[in-house]
């Protein structure tokens, strides 16, 4: 008897790594959706991909419950559905009040094909306070046929009045083993996949972008080498910071990829640089965490490190330095310039307590 091949069911979330429980929640929510959603989480975890898949569920007349993509789903995948409005900042730094007013005006229009219109704002965290306040009235008195999907790193990027009127969807880091398996499924060798996963720090988007780049191992090596090179002398710290940034910046520029205009490319470059710096600082913090854990009898994450090197700093000092590095991640989010931030951090890490 001939073997029957199982039909692969169409999935708007195909290619997504992790976030299974969130996707299942959104599938149920699409039956009776709220008027506004706020997708939050670190850069590179897949927020925009999940939000776009959810938009497809909201616009598809069958809720994407079919084996092959329908006309609506095909138009979602190609980005030309008439009832999906993609909103992007006009400039490099903000999404202004004029764009918010245009969006509000469009929200009053009757849907073209679907039963609703969906507004997807992938960089909603760039919304100015004036723009957010302009949007607030629409969120307070929602149109029954309109759904807003706002994507940002944190709900703190918005006034509390705006965030409180959205259904919050949090997407966290993906487990390292899950990320490694996904990379192996895409053709990476196990060792290479593990290194990429370590550098990506639970961010599938970053992992996929770095998967074929030869610099990945060098980036991780550079960050893990910082503790043995810091001296506490500001001049040397500044040179070390320049060296680290010289490795990262070309990668960030490449990850920005092709963009329709210079402003969009610059925003993409800054996002990539921020993500790579955050990931690198987390790798550096893990060195100090390993140094403390090893000396206190605990496990270590970076198993390829030289164990004697981890014993050159007292556990208490290692814990303090790990905290200082993670504080720098917060400072980086506050838009401090990377070079002076790293130079100051490296000076502090090399100073005696």
CATH architecture label name of the largest domain: 3-Layer(aba) Sandwich
Overall pLDDT metric = 88
Query: What overall geometry do the principal axes of the alpha carbons give?
Result: globular
Number of domains: 2
Strand tally is 5
By oligomeric state, this entry counts as: single chain
Detail the topology: elements first, then pairings:
Layout: H1 20-29, E1 36-40, H2 47-59, H3 71-78, E2 84-87, H4 97-107, E3 117-121, H5 129-140, E4 146-152, H6 160-163, E5 167-170, H7 176-185, H8 190-200, H9 204-210, H10 216-225, H11 234-256, H12 262-295, H13 315-333, H14 338-350
Parallel strand pairs: 1-4, 1-5, 2-3, 3-4
Helix pairs in contact: 2-3, 4-5, 7-8, 8-9, 8-10, 10-12, 11-12, 11-14, 12-13, 13-14
Task: Characterise the protein shown here.
This protein has a 5-stranded parallel beta sheet with strand order 2-3-4-1-5, sandwiched between helices. It has 353 residues and is α/β, with parallel strands linked by helices. The chain contains 14 helices and 5 strands. The longest helix has 34 residues. The protein has 2 domains: 151 residues, Rossmann fold, CATH 3.40.50; 138 residues, no CATH class. It is globular, with a radius of gyration of 23 Å.
Concise overview:
With 353 residues, the protein is of the alpha/beta class. The chain is built from 14 helices and 5 strands.
Keywords:
353 residues; five-stranded parallel beta sheet; globular; Rossmann fold; alpha/beta
